[in-house]
Automatic annotation (TrEMBL):
Disulfide bonds join C60-C124, C73-C134, C104-C114, C235-C245, C363-C373, C479-C489. Gene3D superfamilies: SRCR-like domain. Its EC number is 1.4.3.13. This is Lysyl oxidase homolog. Its cofactor is Cu cation. SUPFAM superfamilies: SRCR-like (SSF56487). Residues 34-135, 164-270, 294-393, 403-512 form the SRCR domain. Coiled coil: none annotated. GO terms for biological process: chromatin organization; collagen fibril organization. Belongs to the lysyl oxidase family. Mediates the post-translational oxidative deamination of lysine residues on target proteins leading to the formation of deaminated lysine (allysine).
Length: 729
């Protein structure tokens, strides 16, 4: 069922929809009830189970089709079927196989009206149990019709919608809404639930659906008595969604709209730290995870990403064998979100690097951390192609209503417009494009739930918005990249500064569902490092490209420079190809090396003192971005020869060998000692990526004047935005 977000707009009284009526069935139609069961990755999918003649059973996959799945989903109250799966994808069921050789047109009112061998007639085994995936959307006005008067407690909850409706004035004005009546929409009408059989497990499930990790007690004396739904609710507490809970006993409503001595259900939820109402602003209010053993990486929005766990000081991934909604929900609650919306497998949100720490995880659903769940410590046979990921329920903060894209060719691009208060009323205006870049565009796309930024624009004359929204209402925007909304970024206050003005010079973005993710292999750096004394007369091309330190200009041709050389292997672990920002026509030809540069700066190489001071540096323009090698089954797309297309394909890597020009740091002027060696890929954020935190690598480095050692190389484990943060005067 669709979660009804509780922004203040949702609390307005709206006309009731037309009453949903049960389909009229022929008298001889077998009376059945359906449910979705098994090993789910989402609440609206699962093994199709049928209740008939006092017993739950399954449906065989023989002759099953998307039309049959459509009938199942509609009968359960979902708008339509998305797909179906044979061969017990959601696990083997038990009991009878009630239907075999099912053939539907898609228009039947119940599965029992589809052509089949006859109810209970089957030669199938449970290895052939069929499963379906239904849409998130529910049928408007859907009303649950119970045909199982004596077995109602074995049914899952099927209603059109659920919401938390704030009643107390102190909660009605608060975003997100954390306390209020639990209401279900059934037959087009909102109704409260009687609390006679209500438990804290039920509250836990409701809070999780709305993005809150836990529930708390509330003051029951301040709530009034309304009208009730016909049933109570029975959750175990580890369900990710109330639709997985069972119906409780039928409630006999009294004439005075009370329920057997009970009162209406109220929940009071505890938001995660990132969503708690606080007076903090700017960077301090931006989303920052608490120090934890678990983190999410590679997700487009807050609350989604590849699951990574910290073990023995090293971050690694989780193998998706047995990965379930139950285990995913433990991760989500641990990180301060609600329950899981979806448990993703197959590296769907990008592949990680390093070890696979956990496999075959089994959780009860009440663990405080995923590390408390049972798991197989052996991950033999698991690769990063099987990295597990999650999408969590997060609170409705109303951010999307205060930002829009205007004038674009499609909903994923346009001029950025912000809703602000001006002269006592609310008005839309533009954002000054001075300093506008990829990081700011990422925050906009995240706020609008449009994925990742694919481009940041400082001119938008080709996207004319409404003239009334031309004036600049926000300037000096500088984001760290972790913010949930643009208003949380640093920006000028009421005193705006924007010499270029708004309108045609306003900031713009284009968004994409996917993005690349470049990661440097630290082991290759460690294994290939060495030192070379190279004559100056052999370094003229490198000198012209500024690959030597400034003192090289005073070095005679007969002398030499001391170079710290190494290879770098850069993998694209994201979901789309890494392509240079510049179009082919603007690539720069370099006569000296006879190649095109597609990016002005692709990597920074720095040698730092132990206190972080830079003592030597190098940089590498993109000599050429190409697929040197790829994983098995992936074809190379990019190569530099003959002015070819440049880029790095998903699942491929570009290797810059230690013996090519500029693949070094000039350490001629460095004294012996201990240092930190650092590599930063895509340092100016020219190309959007799904995760910038893994774009840098650090090693310990020891130099004795004659030899050099590189050790303890590792990818970055915290967000580093130093290059992007700029001070105001």
């Amino acid at each position: 069922m669709t979660v009804h977000h509780n922004t203040p707009e949702c609390l307005l009284i709206k006309p009731e929809q037309e009453q949903y009526s049960a389909p009229e069935l022929p008298p001889d139609t077998p009376r059945i009830q359906l449910r979705l069961a098994g090993d789910k990755r989402k609440h609206n999918e699962g093994r199709v189970e049928v209740f008939y003649d006092g017993e739950w059973g399954t449906v065989c996959d023989d002759d099953f089709s998307i039309h049959s799945a459509q009938v199942v989903c509609r009968e359960l109250g979902y708008l339509e079927a998305v797909s179906w799966f044979p061969s017990s994808k959601y696990g083997k069921g038990e009991g009878r196989i009630w239907f075999d050789n099912v053939q539907c047109t898609g228009k039947e009112k119940t599965l029992a009206l589809c052509t089949s061998n006859g109810i209970g007639v089957s030669d199938c085994k449970h290895t052939e149990d069929v499963g379906v995936v239904c849409s998130d959307k529910r049928i408007p006005g859907f009303k649950f019709i119970n045909t199982m008067a004596n077995n109602v407690q074995s049914l899952n909850i099927q209603v059109e919608d659920v919401r938390i409706r704030a009643i107390l004035s102190s909660y009605r004005k608060r975003i997100p809404v954390t306390e209020g009546y639990v209401e279900v929409k059934d037959g087009g009408k909102w109704k409260q639930i009687c609390d006679v059989e209500w438990t804290k497990h039920n509250s836990r499930v409701i809070c999780g659906m709305f993005g809150f990790p836990t529930e708390r007690k509330y003051n029951a004396r301040v709530y009034k008595k309304p009208s009730y739904w016909d049933y109570s609710v029975n959750c175990t507490g580890n369900e990710a969604h109330v639709s997985s809970c069972k119906l409780g006993h039928a409630v006999a409503a009294k004439a005075n709209s009370t329920c057997g001595g009970g009162t209406p259900v109220v929940v009071s939820c505890v938001p995660g730290r990132a969503f708690s109402p606080t007076p903090m602003t700017g960077f301090r209010k931006a989303f920052r995870q608490e120090q934890t053993l678990v983190r999410l990486r590679g997700g487009a929005i807050v609350g989604e990403g590849r699951v990574e766990v910290l073990k023995n000081g090293e971050w690694g991934t989780i193998c998706d064998d047995n990965w379930s909604l139950l285990s995913a929900t433990v991760v989500c609650r641990e990180l301060g979100f609600g329950s899981a919306k979806e448990a993703l497998s197959g590296g769907r949100l990008g592949q990680g690097m390093g070890p696979v720490h956990m496999n075959e995880i089994e959780c009860s659903g009440f663990e405080k951390s995923i590390t408390e769940c049972f798991f197989n410590k052996e991950s033999l046979g698991c690769s990063h192609e099987e990295d597990a990921a999650v999408r969590c329920n997060v609170p409705a903060m109303g951010f999307q209503e205060r930002l829009r894209l205007s004038g674009g060719r499609n909903p994923n691009e346009g001029r950025v417009e912000v809703l602000v208060e001006r002269n006592g009323s609310q008005a839309w205006g533009t954002v000054c494009s001075d300093g506008w870049g990829t990081i700011e565009a990422m925050v906009v796309c995240r706020q609008l739930d449009l994925g990742f930024a694919s481009n940041a624009f400082q001119e938008t004359w080709y996207w004319p918005g409404e003239v009334s929204a031309d004036p600049v209402v926000m300037s000096g925007v500088r984001c760290s990249g972790t913010e949930m909304s643009l208003s949380q970024c640093l920006h000028h206050g009421p005193h705006l500064t924007c010499p270029k003005g708004g309108g045609r010079n306003a900031a713009g973005v284009s968004c994409s569902e996917t993005a690349p993710d470049l990661v440097l292999n630290p082991q290759i750096v460690e294994q290939t490092t060495y030192m070379e004394d190279r004559p100056m007369f052999m370094l003229q091309c490198a000198y012209e490209e500024n690959c030597l330190s400034t003192t090289s200009s005073e070095t005679p041709a007969s002398s030499h420079r001391r170079l710290l050389r190494f290879s770098s292997q850069i993998h694209n672990n994201g979901q789309s190809d890494f392509r240079p920002k510049a179009e082919r026509h603007s690539w720069v030809w370099h006569d000296c090396h006879s190649h095109y540069h597609s990016m002005e700066v692709f990597t920074h190489y720095d040698l730092l003192s132990l206190n972080g001071t830079k003592v030597a540096e190098g940089h590498k323009a993109s000599f050429c971005l190409e697929d040197t090698e790829c994983e098995e089954g992936i074809e190379k797309r990019y190569e530099c020869a003959n002015f070819g297309e440049q880029g790095i394909t998903v699942g491929c890597w570009d290797t810059y060998r230690h013996d090519i020009d500029c693949q070094w740091i000039d350490i001629t002027d460095i004294k012996p000692g201990d240092y930190i060696f650092q590599v930063v890929i895509n340092p100016n954020y020219e190309v959007p990526e799904s995760d910038y935190s893994n774009n840098f690598m650090k090693c310990r480095c020891r130099y004795d004047g004659h030899r050099i050692w590189m050790y303890s190389c590792h990818n970055g484990e915290a967000m580093v935005w130093v290059n992007h943060l700029r001070q105001y005067d």
